[in-house]
Amino acid sequence: MQEIFQQTISDTIDFEGIGLHSGKITKVKLIPSKANQGIIFKRSDIKKDNIIKANFKNVSSTNLCTILENSTGCKVSTVEHLLAAFYIVGIDNIIVEIDNEEIPIMDGSSKDFVEFLKKVGIKKLDKKRKFLKILKKIEFKNEGKIISIEPNDLNFEVKLQLNYPNNIIGKQKNSVNFSNDNLEEIYSSRTFCLFEDIEKIKKRGLAKGGSLENAIVVDKEKVINEDGLRNEKEFVNHKILDLAGDFLLSGYRIFGKVNCYQGGHKLSNIFLRKLLKSKSCFTEIELNNIVLTKKTELSQSVKIAVNA
After folding, report:
1. How, if at all, do strands 94-98 and 216-219 pair?
2. Domain count of the chain?
3. pLDDT (tens digit, 9 = 90+) per residue, 182-220?
4. Distances from the Cα of 266 to the Cαs of 146, 155, 227, 243, in angstroms?
5. Whole-model pTM over 0.85
6. 4, 72, 242, 301: which has the highest count of C-beta atoms within 10 A?
7. Would you name the residues annotated as active-site residues?
8. CA 238 to CA 191: how far, in whole Å?
9. How do residues 215-235 score in pLDDT, each as one tens digit?
10. Which residues contact 7 (CB under 8 A, 6 or more apart)?
11. Could you give the angle at which helices 80-89 and 111-120 cross, rounded to 10 degrees?
């Protein structure tokens, strides 16, 4: 059942950890926020123009992570796993105060973030949550990668397939309904890389904080992490997790069915920009028990009955 009202956390949360790409130790404070404020990142190490809104328009780079940047050049990177945790737990409004440039990678998944949020508890706010309901299919292709979204009642469903030449990862695929399924295997699935790519990545100044404690590393025909995989579809499940985090940058919870082949941060951001320009493909709605309220251009309300 979808939450009708917006939510935030009941109390502040403090944690710290190393940045995957920067290699820097960062302290983070999650602070409850008011309704309609959205998700806001605040760089506490910068005293002026330090607010960055979590919005797809503020994505300045998708190079192995999602980076948000405001108009003055203030940045925060690797936001996708924390955003995915907000999506899964149901957080709409929150301030993420960070004293460095990158959200800690923790164990490479969203598991720690989800547990922090569940432990402190959720606070319901007095304003209704806005949803984006897909009305007709829209598809985008880019560099051999494909993503589409089509109507799907009151559910957000993601079907994603990978296609790696490596036999361990291979053509793994999975389908997940974020409204109804148990999402533990999704939020606990870690980021991954091929051993042969590590030096290339480090030569680009990235993955300075990477280790077997925060990423799966595949060397030819084996996973070199001592404990192996957490679930048999961990690779594709992590890509689904990334997509959920990136899609929250739309500013909405989306009702639609996503079908994605070889997805990634770049594809998700380009697609969101295309989708949100295609006004005929969606409508903004609010939930009222089992009734949808559709806002027209005249700000009147048209009620549409929905099966319970």
Report:
1. unpaired
2. 1
3. 999 999 999 999 999 898 998 888 889 999 999 999 998
4. 12, 24, 31, 10
5. yes
6. 242
7. 265
8. 6
9. 999 998 899 999 999 999 999
10. 90, 91, 92, 93, 122, 123, 124, 125, 129
11. 40
